[in-house]
Every structure is written in C-alpha cells, then in structure tokens.
Amino acid sequence: MRSSKLLVIITLPLMILLLAIPGPYYVLVRTGVRHTGAVCLGILGVATFLGALSAVSTMTALGAGKAWMPAAFAIASSVINLVSNLLLIPRYGINGAAWGALAASHSCSCLHCADSTFHALFH
C-alpha cells in the first residue's frame, strides 16, 4: 500500500502540471499549435498517471511468480494503442494519438490492477 501512495504522490503533481501548464506555456511562446499541443499534453498527463499506477500490480505479479501477467497486459496495451492510433490519427491528428495512448493505458492499467488484486486476494 505504501508503494501505491508513493506513486500517487510522485505522479499526481506531474499529471496536474501537464493538465494546467500547457495552455499558458503555449500562449507565452506564441506558437500556432498551442491549442492542439495543450490538449495533447493534458491527455498524455492522464495516461502517464494511469500507467504509473500499474507499476505496483506489476511488481506484485512478478513477486508472485506470474511474469506472464504483466507481459500479457503490455501486449494487449500495445494492440489497443495500435488500433486506436489507426482509427483516431487520421481524423484527430496528434490528439487522436494522445487519446489512443490514454485508451490503451486506461484499459490495461485498470484490468491489470484488478487482476493482480483478485489473484492476491483469492489465490
């Protein structure tokens, strides 16, 4: 439980910065892509936070001798990311890539954490 708290303490401020800072930053540098870049960084901040949360369940699975579990979720995440990118990038550009990363990170992180918790409690 202490590991989870430490990960949240470290990654939550990073996510908040990525959600709050990009808009004002792009206004300061006056680039033409400020809105698109700001949205993309915010989405990737959430994806980074969700990805970091799966680290504890990965260590739990490795400690329990189930190295296949994190590997299976990594492969599933890659497939979801690839399919999401193929579907979303042509229509939404860089934001589509960010949404694809978030979809892969969210779905696999949540499933991996739930599966690791189930195995820790009931096996």
Characterise the protein shown here:
The protein is mostly helical and 123 residues long. The protein has one domain (2-122). 90% of the residues lie in helices and 0% in strands. Helix 1 runs antiparallel to helix 3, helix 3 packs parallel to helix 5 (94-122) and helix 4 packs antiparallel against helix 5 (94-122). The model has no long low-confidence stretch (mean pLDDT 77).
Q: What's the arrangement of secondary structure elements?
A:
Elements: H1 2-20, H2 22-29, H3 34-63, H4 68-92, H5 94-122
Helix pairs in contact: 1-3, 2-3, 3-5, 4-5
Let me know the number of strands: 0
Helix content: over 70%
How many structural domains are formed by the residues? 1
Strand content: under 5%
Distance between the ends: 19 Å
User: What pattern of helices and strands is seen along the backbone?
Assistant: HHHHH
> How big is the Rg?
17 Å
Average pLDDT level: 77
In the predicted model, the low-confidence regions spanning at least 5 consecutive residues are none
The structure class reads mainly alpha
Q: Quick one: overall form?
A: flat
Sheet of most strands: none
How many helices? The count is 5
